Amino acid sequence: MKKLIIVALLALSTTACFKDSDINVDPNRSTSVDPALLFSGAATQFSLLRVAELTWPVALMNQMWASGGRWGLSQAQYDQTRIRSAWGRTYTDVLKNLNVAVDIAQSSQPVNKNAVAQCKILMAFAYAQTSLLWGDIPFTEAATGKVDFPKFDKQQDVLNGCVAMLDEALGLIDVNSKGIVAPNDLYYGGDMAKWRKFANSLKMRILFSMVDADASKGAAIGQLIAGGNMISSSADAMLYKYFNQPGRQNPRFSFTAIFRGGVQSDWYCSKPVYDLLVSLKDPRIPYFFQPGPDAAANEFIALNSVETYTTKSALVNMNLLKADLPEVSFSYSEQLLFEAEAIARGFAPGGFDAATTKMRAGVKESLVSFGVPTAQADAYAAGLPVLTTANYKTVLAQQQYLDLFMRPIEGWVQHRRSGAVGQEIPTMTTPTGAPVAGLIRRLLYRSEEVNSNPNTPSGLTLDAPQWFDK
């Protein structure tokens, strides 16, 4: 018995000795993380989601691209694996890393306010995008690691929360101090003046997504435009840069290079986009699309939602799938067209003449960004109709939709807000045999979320409008 007591005492004393020692500490394990590294990792994952996992299914649902019938009714269905992956990675790889980066930056002495601002701006971007794809989402209790079953906040509250987050970030920015700089700031290289411009422009975009459901946002949009300090040139555009180097190439290019031998054979010319371009005599046709391998020169044969491709079917232009093509998060053309809409709707002063000037500048900028020669872009933009009470909704919605051709996430939001349900611009129809009666208006929550979180909304269908979608 005495021996057992001695052994027990030795065990206790040994535990006490080792408790505060460093014998069992892994010397290769990091005890602190530079928030700049977390930020760059989150930014990379966010861009990959935008340019790959989410681009393809959303482009097909939004009928910006066609699939050629390879996966059936692709405009009415979507790749569940990609959508499930995007939901999980947004919260784990993007938002959680940004949340940890904010905590670290706030705990440093002195507090790196610019780093906090950069992280919060990207967080607001990611949360707003996720809500506009799914609707109600975890927000106030999300990405902290402290809540097992986060509640799903209402979309209106999420978007208002994103606006408040951007206001907080704007209040922290000091353009004379450093935050996260190159190479970890993969957007602006640490230029806080440009981060401030993007934050204001992003805030305007979110407000525009809300204004048809909450008319009070019109005044907020007007105040933003009056204050200026938004994206004001192509040099201010929010871009994630890719390079023609192994491991740094645009994922769209990599997919085609790896799985198709460099031959574009997946994404086709959609009939809604092509018909709109033709009706407007728009010069972007050969820049958006390329003829099929057996088609005549300058012969563009578009596909509707149920047709199977042929060797004459036109494809999305390979120039838009280049290795070094950047991912565009916010463009100057988008800014100008938003400003035109704000003026035309009376949120900002100037009247229809000023709105027309802004619209023409935005269309010209869009054409040039797709490769249309400047002189041709000038001539085309100058010939666009003057905006009036009778035509501004249609004319602007058409141009905004076309401008976002390679940005299907923003394009899908734009199409859903362009008119009441069933009256969107341009007009689209549900494919025969689609799983829902109407156009797809939301993504469905992944099964893992439904099965593990009892707070996940239920009973939703793909064609159920979201709060903003009035």
Give a short account of the largest sheet: 2 strands, antiparallel
Strand percentage, roughly?
under 5%
Output the CATH topology of the largest domain: Serine Threonine Protein Phosphatase 5, Tetratricopeptide repeat
**What spatial form do the alpha-carbon principal axes imply?**
globular
CATH architectural name of the largest domain:
Alpha Horseshoe
List keywords for this structure.
two-stranded antiparallel sheet; 470 residues; disordered N terminus; globular; 17 helices; single chain; Serine Threonine Protein Phosphatase 5, Tetratricopeptide repeat; mainly alpha; Four Helix Bundle (Hemerythrin (Met), subunit A)
Q: What would your notes on this structure say?
A:
The strands form four sheets. This protein has a two-stranded antiparallel ribbon. Helix content is 50%, strand content 4%. The termini are far apart. It contains 17 helices and eight strands. It folds into three domains: 207 residues, Serine Threonine Protein Phosphatase 5, Tetratricopeptide repeat (Alpha Horseshoe); 60 residues, no CATH class; 100 residues, Up-down Bundle (Four Helix Bundle (Hemerythrin (Met), subunit A)). The chain is mainly alpha-helical and 470 residues long. Helix 13 runs antiparallel to helix 14.
